Amino acid sequence: MNEGTPYERAQKLLDIIQTIIENHSGTGVKTLKLQVDPCRNVITANQLDIWLQAAVKDGIVELALDLPQFHGPKFNFPCSLLSCAASSLQSLSLSYCAFCPTLMVGCLRNLKSVCLTVVHITEEELGCLFSCALCLEKLEVSQCDEITFLKIPSHLQQLHILRVFLCRRLQVIEVYAPKVSTFSFRGPPMKISISNSSQLKSMTMNGECCSGMFHYALTKLYSIASNLQTLILLSSKEAFDMPAPSHKFLHLRHLKIYCANMKSFDFFSLVSFLKACPVVENFFLSAGRPYIVRQEESILEDSNSDPSRIRCFQEFYHDNLKKVSISGFCSAKSLIELTCQILGTSPSLQCLVLDTTGGYDNTGICENMDRKAIMEALRGVEAIKRYVKGKVPSSVNFKVLEPCDRCHIPKLDVSMQVSDVRGRLA
Questions:
Q1: Which of these, 337, 358, 342, lies nearest to 398 by C-alpha position?
Q2: Distance CA 338, CA 358 (A)
Q3: How far is C-alpha 216 from the geometric centre of its chain's CA atoms?
């Protein structure tokens, strides 16, 4: 298959698939996954239609069609296939095509999972699908830009996982399905309402491509999901300081906050989230990978910064916080202040992990970092030793992850020896 031009290789692969389809009756196929990107320059919409008509019969359980993102055929998925497989189909995944279901599709009584990625479908057509798939348990709608108003109807009694990602024209989400327990969202803050929020236990709000997600979470999220147990937040820009929380998440035990490439962010303001989550036990913060501190932000450059002059809320205590992990740890004064605040007001703290690296993979090897990131990581280690280490109670399992000598330190200037760097931090 590696011989010939790209076009010739694609044609050979297309011929192989064509032969398989022609020699198979279609009977007995349980799973069909078509990933035709290698054939994108030679395949046609007519060929795709022939393949699907031949393979999708009653008895199929899983159908996934992954079309080429670019230069592929403009393909309208034949909804008549759903009528043929209505009694058996449990999972449907479509990408980069048009999908226009109508009420004529019939009852998809066993359909439990639907994933639509870059699919041309209107909210009315999506409503037709919902009316046919009464047992739907999982729904993912990603980059479906025709949808402006997403309404999840109450008759979807079994739906418990809902994911909505980067639908550019979407303005409103209304969820009436009564058992949604996991909701993941990526996009700008918008109007979201969930009729039975008592069932919602886990929520991810990803605002990486926009601004204000932290502010939105503190001011709007309580009315959407007051019974959350797990909350994951991501933001790339915050235009305002974190406001004082007006409500508290009384059931939230796991909080993860990701700061994506933020500049000049006041990490200490995240105390507002700890105030809003009085029973949280696990707190994870990603300051960025890695966070490069401007000179005026670094606590090491502030001649007035001594352990007795950093910010602290003396009246605030957190009796349930047990484990705290901060990745992308650096010398930013506000991050040191946040860490010291946690240490001074969390009597139940058992574990504190401060990771100054870009992260480690499953084999224990640290990820790639450039010279500036390495130097900032080392400044972060120095700030930890100067301002944090002495405040850690002996009962706390305290770990500091540093750039390793094997991978990172050799990237520094050859004139700077490892012993010189380590000596400054001792």
A1: 342
A2: 20
A3: 17
